[in-house]
Amino acid sequence: MFEEMFGVGKSNELYVRGRKPVIPTDVYELSNTYVQKYREIFTNSKSKLILKGRRILIASTDVHEHAIMIIHILLTEAGADMVNLGAEVNPDRIISEAQNKNVEAILISTHNGMALGYAKRLKEEMNNNNVMVPVVIGGILNQKIENQALPVDVTTDLQKLGFYSCPRLEGKFPKMLEYGFKSRENRKEE
């Protein structure tokens, strides 16, 4: 964050904040490990064909920014046009930016036992503003429920709201994007 604020590091749009870090932190190094691990999922020819030129908004519900940094890098390498709102973004801002930037999909990362409450607020904002784009919610998909000692899994509840749930990048993430990016005309026919 200091590098971004004070202009340290060489400008490079492939990096999350537009600058290559001068002193990579351990979190940055861990992020690079995950980028290497998942790169093939995003940069194979099929994924590039699906993602090239697509405008995708990404944000986190809380202070955890690790996952959106990784996804941002991978989708940028695949040719997507990323709108990265960063951490601790409220649903109303997400929908406002989705409208202003004409995004084709919204990717949300969550971690702190708030997935369902956040998703409900996001769905309400989408309905109030007539925003109809695919939404993928990933990360720790749980919610702290009253009278429960620990947060409970809310994956099914998120799906009932019409959102794609994706706790891990392996598996169905590329399929979700492929389905989500069908032309708007085709989605209207379904």
Structural notes for this entry:
There is one protein chain. This protein is 45% helix and 16% strand. By secondary structure, it is an alpha/beta fold. The protein has one domain: Rossmann fold. The strands form 2 sheets. It has a 5-stranded parallel β-sheet, sandwiched between helices. A two-stranded antiparallel sheet has the order 5-6. Strand 1 (55-60), helix 4 (66-77) and strand 2 (81-86) form a beta-alpha-beta unit. Helix 2 packs parallel to helix 4 (66-77) and helix 5 crosses helix 6 (115-128). 34% of the residues are buried.
The major pleated sheet works out as: 5 strands, parallel
Low-pLDDT windows of residues = 183-190
Helix percentage range: 40-55%
CATH homologous superfamily?
Cobalamin-binding domain
Number of helices: 9
CATH second-level architecture: 3-Layer(aba) Sandwich
| Rg computed from alpha carbons, rounded to a whole number of angstroms | 17 Å
Please tally the β strands and state the result: 7
Q: Write down the overall mean pLDDT.
A: 84
Approximately what portion of the residues adopt beta-strand conformation? 15-25%
CATH top-level class? Alpha Beta
Write the element-wise H/E pattern from the N-terminal end onward: HHHEHEHEHEEEHEHH
How far apart lie the N and C ends? 44 Å
At CATH level 3, the topology is Rossmann fold
* Main β-sheet, spatial strand arrangement: 2-1-3-4-7
